[in-house]
Amino acid sequence: MAKPSSNVRMWTPIGNAVDAYRRRVLADDGAVYEHIWRLIHIHEATVVLLGTALASRLMHLWENDASQTTRLNDLRNLVTGIRESALDESEAGDSESSGCMGGSIGAWIDLLNRFGASEAPDNCAFCKSLKEYLSAQAAEPLNFLPAWQRIIKVPAIYCQRLTRVQKFYAINSLRNKIAHVPLPAKVVQDLHSGLRAELLDLLTPDAARLQKDPVADVMTKSWHPPLHGKFVAGKSFVTGVSEFGKVIGSIDPDTKFVWPDTSQTSSGDVVWSASPFVRLDGELKVALLFRVPEIRSDPEGELTGEFHRFAAEVEPVVELQIPKGTFARWIPKRETPKPEEPQKLQAPPAPEKETSKEKDTQSKNQPVSQPAKKTPQELRSLAEDCFRDRDYPNASRWFADLATSNSAQFYNDVAKSKYGAALWRAAERASDLNEQKNKMRLAIELLEQAMHHSDPAYSARAYYEGSKASWHLWKVAGEVKLHAQSLEWAEKAAHLDFVMAYISWHERLVKESEDRN
């Protein structure tokens, strides 16, 4: 195995989790149950770091390549949980995966399995190295398999020799089970020993030497190639647990992944943007974006993200505001053509030999053709398509036409809810302040009507959108009652339907209200 450059150690989030495990094993080798969960923490840090690095690397490679649009949309779907064919994913009855940004380790493993172990492009040194790492097959079945089989009936797929990405799935499956099942002391001890052996194999080529003593310190600085790397932001770099320094000549404030390509064919650094998944704070502490509860409800809005340090600190999770539009490039792009706009009225071409007198006669006697009038069903379809494309100005226009059609079948509470949702978003783009206010007030009126839907899920959606509209109107109008109304409706939405986006939005408003008081 080629050695990394001298100032590059293990990726910091993984190093933090490994360091926390080492410290606790040395301080209290009898706290076996705690050690199991610290090993699982190492697993999660490894999965999220590699998934984050791979996703952002593929975005870097594919974003401007039209031939990769389909695969890039699939990647975006795995990250955000939003599908190209249904961008309004938070409607009632939605059962799709919430994606990596829903806080799902399983979703990150799915991403690694497909785009790392299967579809990683060979023209990228990092992707190729990661593919080799994930696809490497173990010589024996899982070390913790006997202990696992004493807890539950283990699926047959996990009882054979596994690749590393399959081990990721197995450890996550084990984690989900032991989180809900009390374990006897003997099983705990055996489970720790076996799980430790597997984590060491995932981390280092020195695993065989280190796994002999189940509570010995993990004394090695040799890690598998994809696990080496550093983060660079501005003039600073961070690598390993606590190694940092200055980078000569770099002034780009954007945080970058820097992976040392030490293969025989190359010996340079592979560099790409880590935004928005990696954050370095003022003390050069590294945190990974782990969860964005509202991303499927308002992907282009100002969102709150949960950043995890993976360092076993007293406050390991930091909630931060993510600037508006940050995730725009991570929202699937429609591959099919947009619906045709209404045909503009055009004068027919004049015949070549026609006199002006003949033209005057024809213009008086021949009626001008009019564009075909849209049916309510067509209007609803056009409005829905624009809404899914996040073309909110046109969506609100089509919904406005639908509102004048007197069709109760197509202009129902769900249509009013989407009309209101499109209208307040379109209002944000208006340059005139009065126009913004008027559109937002109309949006609130429409959403108030939609709140009476008989289905609690649809009603909750209207309350949530109404809360958002009220909050944005409060921001531009400054009326205190609007913030109170926004808070009240957010609470109603959270009570009506247990959707994490609604709960997180309500919690944000509660905190905002407390801070204001």
Please, what is the oligomeric state? Answer: single chain
Q: Which parts are unreliable, with pLDDT below 50 for 5 consecutive residues or more? A: 85-96, 337-359
How widely separated are the two ends? 59 Å
The overall pLDDT average reads 86
Give the strand order, joined by hyphens, for the main sheet: 3-2-1-4-5
H and E order: HHHHHHHHHEEEEEEEEEHHHHHHHH
DSSP helical segment count: 17
Structural summary, described in words:
The protein has 517 residues and is α+β, with helices and mostly antiparallel strands. The protein contains 17 helices and nine strands. A hairpin with an 8-residue loop joins strand 4 and strand 5 (269-273). The radius of gyration is 28 Å and the shape is elongated. The relative contact order is 0.10.
List keywords for this structure.
alpha+beta, elongated, 9 strands
